[in-house]
Design a protein that fits this description.
14 helices, 31 strands, 5-stranded parallel beta sheet, alpha/beta, globular
Length: about 575
């Protein structure tokens, strides 16, 4: 049963109300854009946090690539620069589609003409409700981590995405145990060869690398308390914890994690790095007062290796992680950086708004949901494009839950709502004159970020995404040196930074025979260890993706080659010849 309404807030119906739910990057950008498009709208922004996220373009690198600055602003200061946006502090309880109302947890309601849901996502913790296992998503979670870092000796990091990479680069002042499920680092962005390129910088930051391992021996069973994670994050709906907006790019630098939040006596220490490749955490053990016994808690997946004898447990740590290979890792606390889950549990009583298997709100290229007048943008949505569109721009684009996409989705949703409203306002015979637009965000996937002090540019299908699981796996796991493809036996060693070539430039055309013969896909690379890594994914002679690490200054030319679909087979690997100015050649 739906909860009783306690209070009804009616707005002036003379002005159509556009309600945006969510104070993160997507929601704020959507509200700002719709407020600028027309003064006819009454724009209402509903935020569960008094702090809003703003995103500004700092530098336009190419037509589709921008350096973005994300910063936080209190709602009262935000209001000064955005007087047309009304801000309501509240948590959405459910959506009444028949009445076109948003019902808040307080019972008050807000009527809408158009509604955009930008409620973001929450960290997918591998183990719930354990005090010393935290996620890093918003400023509050960063502050909680800082308090723990002041006295931490060893920090566990679980995950292999962007947040994990930034943490590893930052936590050089304490021992770090990093558990990654892949055989190379940064699988969300890199392939195995790029990982090898980056890994050398990572290990250089930790001169005291700790690769010691603990062997597992049979032992008596450990008491198990299992708390599985459900498909949706019901904690938000239940009001247990409200997450703020995502912290955005380069959050370590912008929050002043090392420079201002931690004292010099902490940051001056020298820690060691221990990386557990190809493993996952299968159990967490904590000590229970007053008995002092170690108890297994959290969700458990797969077979549990036997526990270590009691003498191997380190009582000075607050918890231990047990990996799938039976390694026991003692930590003061653990950062779970294993991705996010769309925050959409408030729609559980609104089945008319379709969601996918992970809870993402399904939208089309105009950010429209399955229900008229309801739109969605940012991490809470899942974009499903129509592959049969006659004007099929989107074959160079795919969705990743990134701040850059959240920003553009919010803007796109605002433009879509505006066009739909204008069309609805016209007489029946004049609707064909309504403005139409194609969201330019779907022209090409384009993202720029920084890891380990390298600029990283991702264009198109940089790891052959969407070309089939077999193809993508083959492209991701390729390891290339100046001598060509590394065989399977030694691939993992090189991808983890071992035996990587000395500093010398190398240009390689390296593709497994089956990729070339069966799929007509070639991989062209140019690598200068310590300086740059360039990879092109070429299909049927046309560049469909590019991964650029370092100051290559080639992002514009490769973006244009992808969009123009120019056949470059006549140039071959010569396209990456450092003595040829390809930017001037294709100008």
């Amino acid at each position: 049963r739906l909860p009783k309404r306690k209070k009804r807030v009616r707005h002036d119906q003379a002005s159509p109300s556009v309600v945006v739910v969510g104070g993160g990057i997507a929601g704020v950008c959507c509200a700002q854009e719709i407020a600028q498009l027309s003064y006819d709208y009454r724009v209402i922004l509903v935020s569960a946090s008094s702090t809003l996220k703003e995103a500004k373009s700092v530098m336009k690198v190419t037509d589709n690539l921008e350096e973005i600055s994300v910063f936080e602003r209190r709602a009262d200061y935000f209001k000064i620069d955005n007087p047309r946006i009304e801000i309501i502090d509240g948590v959405v309880e459910y959506i009444s589609l028949d009445d076109q109302e948003v019902v808040l947890s307080t019972g008050s309601t807000i009527s809408y003409r158009k509604l955009c849901l930008c409620t973001g996502a929450v960290p997918s913790l591998f183990a719930e409700n354990i005090p010393n296992i935290i996620g890093v998503r918003d400023l509050e979670s960063v502050e909680g981590m800082v308090q723990r870092l002041r006295s931490a000796r060893r920090v566990g990091v679980v995950g292999n995405g962007g947040i994990a990479l930034e943490l590893i680069h930052t936590l050089k002042f304490c021992d770090v145990a990093w558990v990654v499920k892949d055989n190379y680092i940064g699988n969300s962005f890199f392939d195995a060869s790029a990982s090898a390129f980056i890994a050398s910088s990572m290990h250089a930051a930790y001169p005291n690398d700790d690769n010691t391992e603990v062997s597992v021996e049979p032992h008596s069973d450990v008491t198990a308390v299992v708390s599985p994670i459900g498909p949706y994050d019901d904690r938000v709906a239940e009001g247990k914890h409200i997450h703020g907006g995502a912290i955005g790019p380069e959050w370590v630098h912008k929050t002043g994690l090392v420079s201002t939040l931690l004292p010099p006596e902490v940051t001056s220490r020298q820690g060691a790095l221990r990386v557990e490749y190809g493993q996952q955490v299968c159990a967490v053990h904590v000590k229970t007062p007053p008995s002092g016994m170690w108890v297994r808690v959290g969700n458990v997946e797969g077979d549990i290796p036997p526990a270590l004898p009691a003498e191997h447990w380190n009582d000075s740590f607050s918890l231990h992680l047990l990996t799938t290979e039976g390694k026991l890792i003692g930590c003061d606390f653990v950062v779970s950086a294993t991705g996010v889950t769309p925050c959409t549990s408030y729609l559980s009583s609104t089945p008319a708004i379709s969601r996918d298997s992970v809870g993402g709100i399904i939208v089309n290229e105009h950010m429209q949901t399955s229900r008229k007048n309801v739109y969605a943008a940012g991490d809470c949505c899942s974009v499903q494009l129509n592959p049969d569109e006659s004007d099929n721009h989107q074959h160079h684009w795919f969705q990743m839950r990134l701040w850059s996409q959240a920003r553009v989705m919010g803007i796109t949703a605002a433009q879509s709502m505006h066009c739909d409203y204008v069309k609805e306002s016209l007489p029946e015979g004049a609707k064909d004159t309504a403005p139409e637009f194609w969201p330019t965000m779907f022209n090409i996937f384009a993202h720029i970020t920084h890891f380990f002090e390298y600029k990283v540019v991702l264009l198109g299908r940089f790891n052959a995404q969407g070309l089939g699981e077999e193809v993508e796996k083959s492209v991701r796991e390729m390891v290339i040196t100046k001598d060509g493809l590394v065989d399977h036996k030694h691939r993992h060693q090189v991808s983890q930074g071992q035996n990587f070539p000395e500093a010398e430039e190398m240009t390689c055309y390296c593709s497994p025979a089956d990729l070339v013969e069966r799929h007509k896909i070639e991989i062209w690379t140019r690598i200068t260890p310590g300086e740059e890594y360039i990879k092109l994914v070429v299909k049927h002679g046309k560049v469909i993706g590019a991964l650029l690490i370092g100051d290559t200054d080639l992002e514009e030319v490769f973006e244009n080659l992808i969009l123009n679909e120019l056949d470059v087979s006549r140039y071959g690997i010569g396209l990456l010849d450092p003595d040829i100015d390809v930017e001037e050649y294709f100008d």
